[in-house]
Amino acid sequence: MSRIERIQNSLSKTGIDLLVLREQGNIIYAVDSEQPVSGMLLIPRSGEARLLVTLLESVNMSSTLNGVRVVKLDRGEGYLQGLLKEKPTGLRYVEFDSLEMHEALRLEKELCVLVKTGSRIVREMRLVKDAREIDKVKKAAEIASQTVCEITSRLGEGAAEVEVAREYDSQIVLKGAFKPAFETIVAFGENSSNPHSTPSLRRLKKGDIVLIDAGADYFNYKSDLTRTMVYGERLEGSDAARMIEAVEEAKKAAERKAFPGVKACEIDRLACEVLEEYGLGKYFAHGLGHGVGIDIHEPPSISPSSTEELKAGNIITIEPGVYVPGVGGARVEDTYLITDSGPLKLTLASYK
């Protein structure tokens, strides 16, 4: 059964006449594309699905994409105009994955139907990965892991953060990735205290903390990993060594509990408890992790406020971090496949 057919089964159960997908990740998933695809995907409860694309997006596109008819909009024509032209007859209830309120009100008036936004039908389907999706994330993880190992082994005093980041970005493409999964983070010394530091001209010195957060996009599927180390001699008992040890132990505590049926907030709590024991809990500034797949951040959320339970087939990150102003930060992160026998680590770059 195709993904479109599975979605249509869900529509039949919920009474939705038409599902409209606008988010790129949902469209890629629904049409099962290995290439980036954007536009507006119309999935009726029964019958033919249609992908609306602009003239610009339609360059080199055929008339169908994995069995979905491609409708090329006229020059200057918007998606909502296209929807009004291509809508099936007999509509009463239309659901969107995302839509601005003013657009929903306009469509309700022009279509004389109930319009709802925030549909989670496809998002829920994406939570549990199938075998082909898992293989793509594994390959993305392999490319990122190999490249991080190579980059860190060649680090030299005087290298700039931005130089290291750009070397990583180019090397993963040469290994078969589409592109980085997100903007690569390379942070030296005090810059590592910023969780989302942007690579700069800051140059590496002996004794600096080195934090690298990187991933790869392989046929639309992402990986995510972070490594923190000290360049040169890692002095036992130093602030840097203590921070790195704390996040490594916090990650191990979370790993041990990451089984199907466990609440995501519970593994976040376990990691926090370890960081509190090190006196570093107040420096943990974000959730413990997130889902990974077509999007680099997708459900389930691994955070204190999450109400979700882990399921076999989830792919998540576990990434405890501490960030001490004026000193530096440490984060250790891996991508995991949740299985019935526990978490399977997909990112295998060395921690040293």
Description of the structure:
With 352 residues, this protein is α+β, with helices and mostly antiparallel strands. The chain has two domains: 3-126, 3-Layer(aba) Sandwich (Creatine Amidinohydrolase, Chain A, domain 1), CATH 3.40.350.10; 131-345, Alpha-Beta Complex (Creatine Amidinohydrolase), CATH 3.90.230. It has nine helices and 19 strands. It has helices at 3-14, 24-31, 79-86, 101-111, 121-126, 131-153, 161-174, 239-257, 264-277; strands at 18-21, 40-44, 50-53, 64-65, 68-72, 93-96, 114-116, 185-188, 209-214, 217-218, 221-222, 225-230, 289-291, 298-302, 315-318, 321-324, 328-331, 334-339, 342-345. A hairpin with a 5-residue loop joins strand 2 and strand 3 (50-53). The two termini are 45 Å apart. The mean pLDDT is 95.
Bin the strand percentage: 15-25%
The parts where pLDDT drops under 50 for at least 5 residues are none
Q: What is the share of helical residues?
A: 25-40%
Total number of domains: 2
Strand order of the largest sheet: 4-5-3-2-1-6-7
